[in-house]
Amino acid sequence: MGPLKGFRIVEFEGIGPGPFTAMLLSDMGAEILRIDRTTKSGLGIDRPGTRRETTARGRRSVALDLKNPHGVETALRLVAKADALIEGFRPGVMERLGLGPDICLARNPKLVYGRMTGFGQFGPLKDAAGHDINYIALAGALHPIGTSDKPVPPLNLVGDYGGGGMFLAFGIVCALLEAQKSGQGQVVDAAMTDGAAYLTAMFYGMRALGLWQDKRAANVLDGAAPFYDTYETKDGQHVAVGAIEPKFYEELIEKMGLKGEALPSQMDVKQWPKTKARFAEVFLGKTRAEWCKILEGSDACFAPILSMAEAPKHPHNVARKTFVESNGIVQPAPAPRFSRTVPEIQGPPPQRGEHTDAALADWGFASDDIASLRAAGAIA
Questions:
Q1: Following CA atoms 356, 360, 363, 365 in sequence, which dihedral angle do they give, to the nearest 10 degrees?
Q2: Active site includes 355?
Q3: Is 316 a catalytic residue?
Q4: Annotated active-site residue in 65, 160, 189, 229
């Protein structure tokens, strides 16, 4: 299976980027054991739609009452056998539960302790509530995205998943590699503000070179350039073009039927609105399917803008098996690809506490221990 096969990771129940991190590591072969809350924590054992929480795929669930000292001790016993831990609570919550880094690393010195927050483990805003839109706003990543009138949130892809979950997964794998050399674990402090800011590195370079303005719809990559934008087609659909390089731009012009027409120079910024208006007029003359026949697969840097329902059916995505059906749900397949240790989805999203007995047994708990924990109300 995947390249992380053999690694054991304990995930504490959370939302958004924490589960996404665990999904990434699970898809790569790691064994993920999620610690869920029990009814004693005020939440039901089963949640409606749990099986459809695709980012929860590929792990097992044990339900522990972390307000019960026996539940906390059970969690520590699991941590002692894990290579890494994932938690996404506000700073200080794990410490108050008796599961902070100092206690966990005392039990398991090689443990990689992964922490996912919006604002980080320190700083003036560390205790503030927020969501993706707030984190990318503070990081400077939201300001450039949108129309000239206002910023537009790019779903929760930039903060939660790009700047959050992926960076935590990257940090955990880096720390696991280092622990194999040093024999020592450490804490990974992944803040979505840090990660979202990191994603803007190229634009800070462009800004320093005078190639980027601090306003929207005024730059090469933000929709101002006619050769890097989206256009409506005759049938009300849309297409995307990204012909930045001159040779690609020339091919786009030719295939659009504009070769020989007196268009402004490609990089004449003042004339971009004029060129864009002409492009918009031309693209409206044909359907999306007709433009696909003309442009798709060429060096004109073209693609149809597909809906979530359409994308899994596109021939390229079908050929690469970019999407798979698992547990009756069409969803993205594990990525990236490996030539030898092939990743795969390890199973459906678990119901809360679905694997409590079996997972605890697999992690070294005797049947008498499990019975005692149930009698004490520590597990469910």
A1: 180
A2: no
A3: no
A4: 160
C-alpha to C-alpha distances, 49 to 54, 121, 156, 280, 334, nearest whole angstrom: 10, 32, 20, 42, 22
* Domain-embedded: residue 115: yes
Closest CA to 3 of 189, 183, 177, 184: 177
Task: Answer whether residue 337 is part of any domain.
Answer: yes
The domain total for the chain is: 2
Same domain, 336 and 298: no
Q: What is the pLDDT along the chain (380 residues), one digit of tens a residue?
A: 899 999 999 999 998 999 999 999 999 999 999 999 986 444 444 555 577 899 999 999 999 999 999 999 999 999 999 999 999 999 999 999 999 999 999 999 999 999 999 999 999 999 999 999 999 999 999 999 999 999 999 999 999 999 999 999 999 999 999 999 999 999 999 999 999 999 999 999 999 999 999 999 999 999 999 999 999 999 999 999 999 999 999 999 999 999 999 999 999 999 999 999 999 999 999 999 999 999 999 999 999 999 999 999 999 999 999 999 999 999 999 999 999 999 999 999 999 999 999 999 999 999 999 999 999 999 99
Any idea what the CATH number is for the domain that residue 246 is in? 3.30.1540.10
- Structural domain containing residue 129: 8-199+324-375
Residue 319 lies inside a defined structural domain of this protein: no
